[in-house]
Amino acid sequence: MPYSNERANRLGHVPTVNNVAVQNAFSRWVITTAQTGDKSEIASLCRSLDSLPEGDKSDQVSFSITVDGSDQEVEVTREHPTIKTGYLRVAGSFVDLKNLQAAGCSAFVDPVLLRNAHQESSFDAALPGSGLILAGQSGVDTWRQEVTRFLSDTRFDDESQRTLADAILSMHGRPGQPATSIDLNVCPTCGGKRIEGVALAVTLSGGKCSKCGSALYLGDILRSHEEYSPEGSNITALTRVMNVAERLMTLSFMEHFYESQLAAEVFKQTIFITDGPLALYGTLAPLKRKLQSYHDYLSAWGSKKKLLAPLLVGIEKTGRFVEHAELIADRIPAGNVMLLTTAYINRVTGRPSGNDYGVDEFYGRRFILRTTSGDPLVITVPPKPGVLPYVGPGAEDFESYPLLRTICEVLDQVRTRLFPNAVIPIALAHSAAALPLGVGHSVLRAMAQRGLGLPQVSQQPRHPSVGFSR
Ligand SMILES: [Zn+2]
């Protein structure tokens, strides 16, 4: 508390940017993303869409499924401002692109047509922040169990019994062949390591460390507990769980469609959009290899059916690359896509020139699409199987991204003037993730209503409930 004659922090009253020290510093510093390089360099990284390798016909793509999440950490009570709880919501938003185009045909978007063209499903979770425990448990063990409960209890869509925990096993297997058990690398309790011979297998119902005998949980795969703090904010750990839940929702749709009689037809007609880059950061980063290998299997299956699958793209709404894209948009011809080389990325993000950007985190590569209407869009697109997006042969060749052309053509069609920096499916998914929703919405039902023959939904749970006593 300040003394009565004391003013607040001296800098607090002076706009900091007017401070001499700050002004002097700004005269020395350069904004990295503003170093755009010369015109010819950007031009050399651009290709027109019609010069890209021919993909599947983009007019076959009739549906989009966009997944977006939101999270926040809030004080539980006024009396205990340090006690926090985390909320997260993940929403899957389905858009019937043909009806959407009809809705946007006139000068103004028709709100009724727009509403009828989309449907969403979503799930919510509350996770314990610092100072909240299950009776008799430590904070971190509470976190581990509650994350696992969330994964085990959460169905990705109202019309399916498939849970996010099932999706973790699918992610560690192949399409249609989920893993039954996954090995952790480190015991969260004793630190015993698998490479030192400790057995650390977990299944849907958990596991047991062979060294210390303590319980292992499926959610330990996310390693979010490594960032859990018994005091202070747990927003980082919460965001990790949200990010993986978004990926698991998308994967659940893919797995559901794969098991359908009309799988080839559904994959041909559906584009999967992820909010943000196709990347997983921090403790989640090792999981990107699992996602990449799942997509590779799906892609190999698609090749046999003579189709490109899955049509997957990450779109960034905000951040460094979106700012940069706006800055250089005029240098990219409309209807062109720019491949961001690692050398280019390192320079505009202020990283050393030899830096291995994105190698550990990305399961796709970033491009900037300048739509025919002139707006820049920052996207991530997976490479073909056998190519890693940020390292090794082919990573920086347009030819390694056979989905690119089809994806860009679809996005070019759904770009909207309604929302700046957004394509309609992303904007709709974002509002679904941010707002309270009624119950009972289902993307699968909406797709079934459009005559897509999806697998019959079993009323029986796919597995008995995980063994937590409530
Ligand atoms: Zn142990």
Structural key phrases:
alpha+beta, 15 helices, 17% strand, nine-stranded mixed β-sheet, 470 residues, disordered C terminus, binds zinc ion
SSE map:
Layout: H1 10-13, H2 20-28, H3 39-44, E1 46-48, E2 63-75, E3 84-96, H4 97-103, H5 111-116, E4 118-128, H6 139-153, H7 164-171, E5 182-183, E6 201-203, E7 206-208, E8 215-216, H8 235-258, H9 263-269, E9 270-275, H10 287-304, E10 311-316, H11 320-328, E11 336-339, H12 342-349, E12 365-370, E13 376-381, H13 404-414, H14 424-434, H15 443-449
Parallel strand pairs: 2-9, 9-10
Antiparallel strand pairs: 1-11, 2-3, 3-4, 5-6, 6-7, 7-8, 10-13, 11-12, 12-13
Bound molecules: zinc ion (ZN).
Give a written overview of the molecule.
The longest helix has 24 residues. By secondary structure, the protein is α+β, with helices and mostly antiparallel strands. The strands form 2 sheets. It has a 9-stranded mixed β-sheet with strand order 1-11-12-13-10-9-2-3-4, with helices on both faces. The chain starts with 9 loop residues before the first helix and ends in a 21-residue tail after the last helix. The structure holds zinc ion (ZN). The site of zinc ion has 8 residues, from loops.
Number of helices: 15
Globally, the shape reads globular
Q: What is the straight-line distance between the termini?
A: 44 Å
Total number of beta strands: 13
Question: What hetero molecules are in the model?
Answer: zinc ion
Low-pLDDT parts are: 1-8, 456-470
Radius of gyration: 24 Å
